[in-house]
Amino acid sequence: MEFMQPEEELKLIAEYNRRFPYKVELHVHLDGAVRPETVLEIAREREMTDKLPHKTVEELNRDVILVEPSSLERLLLSFSYFMPIITGCRKAVSRIAYERCEDAAKHSIRYMEIRYSPHLFANTVDNGYATEKGDLTPRDVVLAVNEALERGMKDFGVTVRSILCCMTHQPEWAPEVLALCDEFRDQGVVGIDLAGMEFEPGTPAEECAIKKVFKKAEKCGIHRTVHAGESGTARAVKEAIDHFRAERVGHGYHAYDDRDVYEKVIREHIHLETCPISSIMSRACEADPQIHPLKQFVKDGVSYSINTDDPVVLGNTLTDDFKFAGDMGLTDEEIIRGIFNAARSCFASYDERKRIVRELKQVYGDH
Ligand SMILES: [Zn+2]
Fold first, then answer.
1. Boundaries of each Adenosine deaminase domain copy (predicted)?
2. Residue 224 lies in a domain
3. Whether residue 231 has pLDDT greater than 70
């Protein structure tokens, strides 16, 4: 991402808030949306500055933010700089969840689903981030996030729901993720996701622990989204739909590479949570925005939305992604259609979804 001067950025945000005063975001990771200033402050508070080689926001950003198209592996590597500072600390988890609400409100996001792996913030499990064992369980993490989001919603006037992530490299965590989705379904947890490096398609559904968990989620009435077709193929998107019973797919760009899969996505009204800037920086898509699959999705009547994914690593905001979609050739009307698609595909309760769509119509007219 190019860096803008603060005044320029404020002007851009104000302009986009005028054009799109009610935004909906479905795909953003809590651990990918941490403020760099907060990471530095928490490191000082927890006396962990020896674990962080950076003293200033600029230094931290230099290592964490991708400045040119890289890879999904490189994107995930950025997390290893700052996650050990947050993991295992209830106060830190609570703070980043609360601040996320404030950051969302700044960009006129009125409904947001934030996703995270409770296990990656806990220190009772081996997650590669916790610097020492402690007593913060994945369940405690969910409690802390729920409480912080409640406060954030009240203080900043944004509705926030959460999605709990299973991680591809840790299938043994998946049953507990499902249990937490079930336990907290009335306290803002609205769905389950599969994140991390993209899963390899090909394992029979009955042999894959995570696929079994997603099937159970469907039975329990828990909404499902899966990262697929980002670094992976159309086949992964097909399995996300058929085996994981995904109602939405995170990214899903490569569905377009296979006619049958692409038609299936359209026919079965699978919503694709596109993240335009992320897709270029992770090299999921060609660097030339003029041939971005999102343009095709718009033309072909796919249900798409526009999202940020991991702002701390990409240096982006939802305003930037809306602008990027515009630079790609999407009209304001097409961007607004993406907002309506997001609202209609969100995992909130039926009544809440209806309320959001009604509010959108008041702002943008019928769509
Ligand atoms: Zn993602």
1. 23-362
2. yes
3. yes
Residue at 293 is within a domain: yes
Q: Is 283 left (phi over 0), alpha (psi -120 to 50) or beta?
A: left
| Segment 191-223, tens digit of pLDDT | 999 999 999 999 888 889 999 999 999 999 999
Residue 165's CATH number: 3.20.20.140
CA nearest 230: which of 264, 203, 196, 259? 196
CA gap 152, 143 in Å, rounded: 14
Catalytic residues: 230
For ligand 1, the distance from its centroid to the CA atom of residue 47, given in whole angstroms, is: 30
How far is ligand 1, taken at its centre, from the CA of residue 269, in Å?
20
Spacing, Cα 274 to ligand 1 middle (Å): 9
Q: What is the predicted pLDDT for the residue at 49?
A: 92
Q: Tell me, what's the pLDDT at 191?
A: 98
Q: Counting every residue, how long is the chain?
A: 367
Asked if the structure places residue 366 within a domain, the reply is no
362 C-alpha to ligand 1 centroid (Å): 30
Kindly give the distance from the C-alpha atom of residue 35 to the centroid of ligand 1, in angstroms, as a whole number.
Answer: 17
The C-alpha atoms of residue 356 and residue 110 are separated, in whole angstroms, by 9
Q: What percent of the chain has pLDDT over 70?
A: 99
Is residue 185 assigned to a domain?
A: yes
How many domains are contained in the chain?
1
- Residue 91 lies in domain: 22-346
**CA–CA gap between residue 16 and residue 318 (Å, rounded):** 10
Please report which confidence band the pLDDT of residue 3 belongs to, taking 50, 70 and 90 as the band edges: low
Q: Measure the CA dihedral 137/138/140/141, to 10°.
A: 130
**How does residue 73 score in pLDDT terms, banded at 50, 70 and 90?**
confident
